[in-house]
Amino acid sequence: VLHRDVKSKNILINGSNVKIGDFGVARELAETGADKLTVCVGSPQYMSPEMLSKAPQYDKKTDIWSLGCTCYEMGIGDYAFKGENMQKIRQLVEEKMLPAMDGTDYCHDTKTLIMRMLQNEPSHRPTTRQILEEIKTHRCPTYKDNTLTGSLKSVAAVSPRMKPVQRIHIPEEK
């Protein structure tokens, strides 16, 4: 299932339960009969480069991008790619201009995972399985409760940070 609108407003946290909501624009690739979808839907600030392209063709890796944008937003308190319109957001994404993650409570490994999720080339982004494995095995020195839920609660308690941002170039993985 491609959610196609993964964003902070669609992530529900209740105690130790974390769920994704609002499947209004979700699709199964199998039901379409194609490997890729071509309709541009969702919230522009979370759209992947392939969805923002003039002729969109995307698959499940688009949700990985959106998750990276969401994780970035949770730590910083603002959008990863913030523009006054779709054209400005597209430009920032194409130029790989991600604001620096200075001042977040994220450890180095978490920042690295987010950067991997925000690779412009979909094949360079981690799979869902790889992300889950990293989360399961990760022991963050920043939080006492180093489970995913514990980290989410800690980050949520201090967000939004809403600081002025300096943009950094995202190096493409080889």
Q: How many separate helices?
A: 7
Structural class: mainly alpha
Task: Give the biggest beta sheet.
Answer: 2 strands, antiparallel
Beta-strand fraction estimate: 5-15%
Q: Compute the average pLDDT.
A: 78
Q: Strands of the biggest beta sheet: in what spatial order? A: 1-2
Q: How many DSSP E strands?
A: 4
List the helices and strands and how they pair.
Layout: E1 11-14, E2 17-20, H1 29-32, H2 49-52, H3 61-76, H4 86-94, E3 97-99, H5 108-117, H6 128-137, H7 148-158, E4 167-169
Antiparallel strand pairs: 1-2, 3-4
Helix pairs in contact: 3-5
Describe this structure in words.
By secondary structure, this protein is mainly alpha-helical. Helices cover 37% and strands 8% of the residues. The chain has seven helices and four strands. It has a two-stranded antiparallel ribbon with strand order 1-2. Strands 3-4 form a two-stranded antiparallel sheet. Helix 3 (61-76) crosses helix 5 (108-117). The chain starts with 10 loop residues before the first strand and ends in a 5-residue tail after the last strand. Residues 158-168 have low confidence and may be disordered.
Task: Give short descriptive properties of this protein.
two-stranded antiparallel sheet; mainly alpha; 174 residues; 7 helices
